[in-house]
Amino acid sequence: MRNALNKLSDTVTDENEKVRFENEMDTFFALFRRYLTDKASGTALDWDKIRSPSADEVVDFKDITAPDSTENLSKLAVLKLNGGLGTSMGCVGPKSVIEVRDGNTFLDLSVRQIEYLNRQYDSDVPLLLLNSFNTDTDTHQIIRKYSGHRIRIRTFNQSKYPRVFKDSLLPVPTSAEDNIDSWYPPGHGDLFESLHASGELDALIEQGKEILFVSNGDNLGATVDLKILNHMIETNSEYIMELTDKTRADVKGGTLINYNGQVRLLEIAQVPKEHVEEFKSIKKFKNFNTNNLWINLKAIKRLIESNGIESEIIPNAKSITNKLGQEVNVLQLETAVGAAIRHFENAHGVVVPRSRFLPVKTCSDLLIVKSDLFYLEHGALRLDPSRFGANPLIKLGSHFKKVSNFNQRIPHIPKILELDHLTITGNVNLGKGVVLKGTVIIVCQDGQRIDIPNGSVLENVVITGNLTILEH
C-alpha cells in the first residue's frame, strides 16, 4: 500500500499541490494501517462494560443557567458540514443549495442566522463551511452573493482519499488525476485534520476564537445557543455533544455511554447482533446524538499535534464501475466527528429540546419544514406554539423521492398542524389548500392514480385504489 501511494504522489507535478497531496496520503496511510490493526486484533466493545452516563456526563438543557451577557460570542465560530451532495433527493450539486423554505436554501438560512446574530449583538461570529471536492467549486460560486452581508464566510476542504479494492486492499486510482469515482471524502471525522492542515484552526485561535459550534448543514434546528456556549466556558469543557430524546424514528442513532469510566459515543454498528434490539430500546438508551457539537479550538490543536485523536473507523462498502465498464467492490474508510468525544477533557452531553434537531434527509422531512408547523424568524425555524406534541411521522413513497417529483405532486404544502401520521405511496397528487389531521394513509396501487382536490380536509382516513375525490 505504501509503495502504491508513493506512485500516486509521483503523478503530481505542481510542487505545492504535491506537498498537500503527500500529506493527505500520509494521513490516509495512517488510517489504513490502523484499520488493518483493528481488524486483526478485534476491538469490539465488551457489552457488559457499558454503563449509563453519570449525572455530570449528561446534563439537561433546562438545568443550565442562562448567561447574563453576550460577551462570550466574541469567542465563537460556527462551522457547517457542507460536503454532501443532494443526489439522494435527486438534486445536482451541494445539498446546501436545495430550497427548503420561502425561497431560502439551507445555506441562505445559515447565513441569515449568523448575520442577524452579529447585527443584534454587534458581534463578529464567522461562518466556516467544510466542503468536499464534490461541493467546493459550486460553493465558492454560491457564496459570492453574500459578499455585502455582515458575515465572514470561510471555506476549506475535507481530505481526498483513495478508495481501495475490497479484495486486494490496494488503492483504486493509479494516478492523482484518475476519475473522481476513485476517490472519496472520508466523513466528518476528518474535520480536525482538515481544519488544522488548511490553516483555519491557527487563524481562528489568533483571532481569539475559543469555541467551534459544529452542525450538519441540513439541520435547520442547529442555531447558536448562548446558554450552551456559556455553560461550556463555565465548566471548562473541551467538547459538548447535544443529545435529544429518542422517538421511533431515531432508534438507530448513536448515544453516549460510560465505558471503562470514560464517556464515549456508541453507534449501532458497534453493537453485537444479540444486543441490537436492546440498543434500539427507548427505555435503556433514552437519547441520541444530534451531531450538534461544541468543541474547544485549542484542544483540537493539542490533540492533532500529538496524534491524540483516533476515532473508530467505519469501513463503508461501495461498488463502482471501472474503466472497462465492470462493477467492482471497493471500501472507503471513514470516521465520525462525534466519536472523538472520548479524547477531550470534561467532555459531556447536553439533552436539548427536539427543536434543535430538524434535519432534512428526505422529501418526507422537507414536507415538515415547509409546512405550517413552523414559521421563519431571522433565518431560524420556530415551531408554531399551538402545535401539541412531537412532529408528525411522515412517510412518502418512492414517487416522492426526488425534490422535482415532490414539488410536482405537492405543489402546495398541506396544512398539517393537527397531523399525527401521514403515509402516501404511489401515484398521488395533492391539490391546493389541503388540510391533514390525525392519521392519514393514502395508498395508490400500481397503474392507478389518486388526486386529492383543492380544499380537501382529511382526518383519520385511509384512501386506497384509483380515486379522484369529488366531495370533501
Automatic annotation (TrEMBL):
InterPro entries: Nucleotide-diphossugar_trans, UDPGP_fam, UDPGP_trans. Keywords: Nucleotidyltransferase, Transferase. Substrate binds at residue 188. It is an enzyme of class 2 (transferase). One of its GO terms (molecular function) is UTP:glucose-1-phosphate uridylyltransferase activity. Its EC number is 2.7.7.9. It comes from the Eukaryota. The keyword Nucleotide-binding does not apply. One of its GO terms (biological process) is UDP-alpha-D-glucose metabolic process. UTP binds at residues 95, 158, 187, 218, 361. It catalyses: alpha-D-glucose 1-phosphate + UTP + H(+) = UDP-alpha-D-glucose + diphosphate. CDD domains: UGPase_euk. Plays a central role as a glucosyl donor in cellular metabolic pathways. This is UTP--glucose-1-phosphate uridylyltransferase. It comes from Wickerhamomyces mucosus.
